[in-house]
Amino acid sequence: MQNAQFYHHTITENAYYGYLCCRVVFEEGRAFDFIHEEVNSGYEKLTGRHNVVGRRLSEVMPAIAESNPVFVENLIEVTKSGTPCRLEEYFEGRNKWYDFSVYSPREGYLVAIFYDITGRKELERALLESEERFRSLFEDHSAVMIVLDPETGAIIDANQAAADFYGWGVDELRVMKIFDLNSSSYEAVQKEMEIWKTMGQRSMSFRHRRADGSLRDVEIFGKKIIRSGRSLVYDIVHDVTLRNRLETVSQMRIRLLEMAKSSSVEALLQSTIDEVEWLTESSLGFGFLMEDDQASFSHESYSTKTMLRMCNVRKRESLFSLSKAGVWADAVSERRGVIHNDYPSLSHRKGMPKGHVVLQRELVVPVLRNGKIMAILGVGNKLFDYDENELTWASTLADQAWDIIESKINEEKEKKLHSQLQHSMKMEMIGQLAAGVAHEINNPLNFIILNEYNLHDDFTDLRELMGHYRRIIDKVEELPLFAEEIGLLRAKERELDVDDLLKSIPETLEKSKNGVERIKSITHSMRNYSYKNSQEQLTSLDLNKAIHEALVIAKSEYLYIATIALQLQELPSLLCDSSQINQVILNLIINSTHAIESQKRGSPGQIEIKTWATTEQIFCSVTDDGPGLREEIKSRIFEPFLTTKDPGKGTGLGLSISYDIIVKKHHGTITVDSPHGSGVTVTFSLPVQYAIEPPVHS
Predict the structure, then answer these.
(1) Are 176 and 278 part of one and the same domain?
(2) Same domain, yes or no, for 274 and 370?
(3) Number of independent structural domains in the chain
(4) pLDDT confidence of 529, banded at 50, 70, 90?
(5) Is residue 19 a part of any domain in this protein?
(6) Res. 311: pLDDT tops 60
(7) Terminus of the chain with fewer CB atoms < 10 Å: N or C?
């Protein structure tokens, strides 16, 4: 909010409502007076008080505490509890009745919307006193009045004020039925009419339709009367649309403040869109948050009603450019609210995705703070044209909600940054440990490699020497002098199975060599994974090689859980923060492994990793045949701290951090698909502009 302005002044300035915003004066911790901060012309007209801004209520109306003590106490109670209230109050000094809606938009402030109901009260009294007096007041009274037949719902009579309000002539109204005015279903209205069989008078609230198609909130005081021997219902209709809209703004703020304690930014944004959609009588609504670069959007959201009608339209799960946005982006380029009442005729429209409802008209408002556009909210397909009044109301709602949404965004950012810092420190410690272990292993490993090489050479020499010995033995074996010794030697060879040793020792040495190479590969991958770019500098990365190294690191995770299928196409080298991309790949492999493991099935699952490239993007996808994602999770999958794992088994940061790395830091895209709720495919892409073409070999 800006100072004490609550965005109501421009709306109510020329209204017949009184509008008052005041600051609470406290004494010893208790509210006891109010200072006028802002009023409209309706306030001055209805109260007869002028030049009140900056003055106390006790000064402007010095006798109010004595003449209307309960009224003042109720005002004080609203400031204490924050709970809005409705009051009907008689002021003896002006001989007037007023209807007040009072609420506290924020701590220390009070807003009152009020209007003169003296005429209605006189009519109510006239109804009680005399039908003749009532009839004399009916024709020319400024209040909207109609007379109904409760049996049929037919409008028997209407005064000129009703004709002016509804837009039909008096004669036209007299041949219509209440069902033509009431926006509720026929069954609902019929049920309301049935109640008149047992009641004599009552107050009701409805939405009524006017001749131009617009809907207005009305409050009705109804009373049974007898005219010409017929039992009829006489209604005084009061338009309370403006009051209800102002109350909607206040109630929405209170509701969002409560929601913010446990709801996400996405949920707060959707709730705000729902309110704007309802307020403007629209049938679809959408919203986006604008990035700091003022050239791209994120956090795509739709109203609840829109999501039900457009369930087949995929939400974008990454940043998208303003240049690719539809005509609603006019609100960004023009930096103000825009109305497109004939959408199909617009020459610069870009069309709708498959499954999107046909758009006839739309209203879009930006939220601006300190010269920057923070968000865009839009609604569409009202049954008739949008107007500037609705544009103002949509802006009011968006502005009122933004402070709460922004606070939640900052709260989530702070929480996410804290968790990312902890995660980063953890990963750095793991990296340091991995680098240390790799270094410590490499020292004895070098001795083993050297010894293995020497053993291989020594055994080759030994086998050659054995050949010489055997040739000599073959020559002296027939000499009687050496027959006994030769026999013993042959027996010893058989006992030791020398021939088998000469065959198996090279095989054993070869297996040892393969094992050593395996250890060497693991330590190499550990060193690469633990490497962190200083100051996040971009370096060249072979994405396919990074996948192989991540698989080496993660092998202990997936070894008995899943088989790995690779489809890696030839790719150009990528200019990126290699340590961060390594982290994304490892996160995705481990996520898939854990998803398959959660099914506790008897046979291994499968993880398929693919890479490919186009002229514009380099792609990598990781697919598992695990349990998939529930529909309600898909749209929130990149939210921080959202985890599908059992309590205590996941931080909910893996995909959030991956999103941040790919989208925010590398300007790529990342999407999650889970068709038919079986298996998950996560695909990320990085722009080719960050790629380094492979060298051309002559």
Answers:
(1) no
(2) yes
(3) 5
(4) low
(5) yes
(6) no
(7) C
- Alpha carbon distance 551, 691 (integer Å): 23
Report the distance separating Cα 196 and Cα 176, nearest Å. 19
Q: Greater confidence, 120 or 642? A: 120
Averaged pLDDT of the chain = 80
How far is it, in rounded angstroms, from Cα 191 to Cα 150? 11
Sheet holding 284-290, edge to edge: 320-321, 296-302, 284-290, 372-380, 362-369, 338-340
User: What is the span of the domain harbouring residue 488?
Assistant: 406-531
Phi, psi of 29 (to 5 degrees): 80, 0
* Cα separation, 428 vs 431, whole angstroms: 5
Complete DSSP assignment for 617-671? EEEEEEEE-S----HHHHTTTTSTT---SPTTS--S-HHHHHHIIIIIIT--EEE
Residues 6 or more apart in contact with residue 383 via CB below 8 angstroms = 213, 281
Look at residue 364 in the predicted model and tell me its pLDDT.
Answer: 92
- Find where tokens 């083993």 sit: 448
Domain assignment of residue 400, yes or no? no
Residue 146 in contact with residue 237, Cβ under 8 Å?
A: yes
Q: What is the pLDDT of residues 572-588, one digit of tens each?
A: 888 888 878 888 898 89
Report the sign of the C-alpha dihedral through residues 201, 204, 207, 210, in that order.
positive
C-alpha span between 519 and 617 (Å, rounded): 35
Tokens of 217: 């909130």
In terms of domains, do 517 and 567 share one? no
Count of residues in the chain: 698
